[in-house]
TrEMBL record:
GO terms for molecular function: triose-phosphate isomerase activity. The keyword Protein transport does not apply. Belongs to the triosephosphate isomerase family. The active site is at 103 (electrophile), 175 (proton acceptor). It comes from Paraferrimonas haliotis. One of its GO terms (cellular component) is cytosol. This is Triosephosphate isomerase. Its main location: cytoplasm. SUPFAM superfamilies: Triosephosphate isomerase (TIM). It comes from the Bacteria. It is an enzyme of class 5 (isomerase). Keywords: Cytoplasm, Gluconeogenesis, Glycolysis, Isomerase. Its EC number is 5.3.1.1.
Length: 261
């Protein structure tokens, strides 16, 4: 059985400020003394360089932890006349190690598609970033029994576009759309069923070590439900929205991710 280091990624979405970053770094410095969890802070792009600098300024106090920064999106293009867009190379240049791709909010409101997300994935890995690929079904897709098909299509397009080793250094986040921001998390059993499918499907369609790929759960994760979710065999941590904006809750979730395994 491959051991997988859990990941706790905080997706601030269009929220937060530098004060939150300072609060998080102070908490991690004093309360997280383990490198058994990989922590990823994903603030709005305007704060990325500042958050990275804050982590570097507190490197001594953060020694023995694993904390990086990630973007919330990246362009499928390298640069040029694309107002408002941010290239993967730019994220890497300010010290990002990760980038969230294909979040359902970007698919719903900003035109991300299965094809464009696979192309963004290519730019991310070409620039040395670890993609956090978001997949998940809507309530109607689940009710119609299409959950696995919807997720399989995204995984297959990434492999078709990026090759059979695409997931060698990537993270997947299962985020059922009906659980995001609703307070209605998937049950541990629902999460485990889909995570196990993702892992099995990766083994079928790619040459990456499916047992080594971290698969995070996201969608209304809080300290009240995290222990059971993180204890699931194929749940390797979480992609956290609302709770990542509260330093106490977020560090609590990091500690739960460590103790769950
Ligand atoms: O979208 C999410 C993380 O990317 C989940 O958001 P919530 O944790 O607020 O449900």
């Amino acid at each position: 059985m491959t051991s997988r280091r859990p990941v706790l990624a905080g997706n601030w979405k269009m929220n937060g400020n530098l004060q939150l970053a300072q609060e998080l770094v102070a908490k991690f410095s004093s309360e997280l003394d383990s490198d058994a969890v990989e922590v990823v802070l994903c603030p709005p792009a305007v704060f990325l360089a500042n958050v990275k600098q804050l982590l570097e300024q507190n490197a001594a106090a953060l020694a023995g932890t694993r904390i990086g920064v990630g973007g919330q999106n990246a362009s499928a293009l390298d640069g040029g006349a694309h107002t408002g867009e941010i290239a993967a190379s730019m994220l890497a240049s300010v010290g990002c190690d990760y980038v969230i791709l294909g979040h359902s909010e970007r698919r719903a409101m900003y035109g991300d598609t299965t094809v464009s997300v696979a192309e963004k994935f290519a730019k991310a890995i070409a620039n040395g970033l670890i993609p956090i690929l978001c997949v998940g079904e809507s309530e109607s897709e689940r009710q119609q029994g299409n959950t696995f098909d919807v997720i399989a299509a995204d995984l297959e397009k990434v492999v078709e576009t990026n090759g059979k080793r695409a997931f060698d250094n990537a993270i997947i986040a299962y985020e059922p759309l009906w659980a995001i921001g609703t307070g209605n998390s998937a049950t541990p059993e629902q999460a485990q069923e889909v995570h196990a499918f993702i892992r099995a499907h990766l083994a079928k369609i790619s040459d990456s070590d499916a047992n080594a790929v971290r698969i995070l759960y996201g969608g209304s994760v809080t300290p009240d439900n995290a222990v059971e979710l993180f204890a699931q065999a194929d749940v390797d941590g979480g992609l956290i929205g609302g709770a990542s904006l509260d330093a106490d809750k977020f560090i609590n979730l990091c500690q739960m991710a460590v103790s769950a395994k």
